Amino acid sequence: MGVFTSILCPVDFSTHSERALSLAMDLAAQTGAHLTILTVVDPLLAQAAQAAGRGNAVTAQTQDALQSLLGRVTKVRGRLPEAPGISVAVGDAAQEILKQSADCRADLIVMGTQGLEGPRRFVFGSTTERVLRESLVPVLAVPAPPDSTS
């Protein structure tokens, strides 16, 4: 068994988080760690869907998007020996990342340093900064690709 046994990778579907997910998958493959992929839905978006009678549609669509993202990255990186865990939370991004880290007993968090803006915002720069400050486990902050403009 490697240094890491459980890795948490929060994603927001940006190129920044896709890069972090690729690295998290490589680390999981090299160390034999279990990988959990998390995205956090803004509570206002979830409430708006609820008010529109769409109930759990946001969570279901987000889980589908996570599976699609995982499929894209898997095509490039290859499959992991163990299927990653997929988690969708609703709430404050940093708080939910820290909570999921404890829940899955992560001993490493791998996340992008910058993400999406506006209504598609799930995890963003200030979230990474807060997780870095408050996490009880190491956080690997993955910078944006050099050619990234988002």
Overview of the molecule:
The protein has helices at 15-31, 43-51, 57-77, 93-103, 125-134, and strands spanning 6-10, 34-41, 85-90, 108-112, 139-142. With 150 residues, it is α/β, with parallel strands linked by helices. The chain has one domain: Rossmann fold (3-Layer(aba) Sandwich), CATH 3.40.50.620. Strands 3-2-1-4-5 form a 5-stranded parallel sheet, sandwiched between helices. Strand 1 (6-10), helix 1 and strand 2 (34-41) form a beta-alpha-beta unit. Helix 1 packs across helix 3 and helix 4 (93-103) packs across helix 5. The protein is globular and about 45 Å long. The model is unreliable at 118-124 (pLDDT under 50).
Shape: globular
Count every helix, treating DSSP H or I runs of 4 or more residues as helices. Answer: 5
Under CATH, the homologous superfamily reads HUPs
Report the CATH topology name: Rossmann fold
- In the predicted model, the low-confidence regions spanning at least 5 consecutive residues are 118-124
How are the SSEs ordered, and which strands pair?
Blueprint: E1 6-10, H1 15-31, E2 34-41, H2 43-51, H3 57-77, E3 85-90, H4 93-103, E4 108-112, H5 125-134, E5 139-142
Parallel strand pairs: 1-2, 1-4, 2-3, 4-5
Helix pairs in contact: 1-3, 4-5
List keywords for this structure.
5 helices; globular; 45% helix; alpha/beta; 5-stranded parallel beta sheet; 150 residues; 5 strands; Rossmann fold
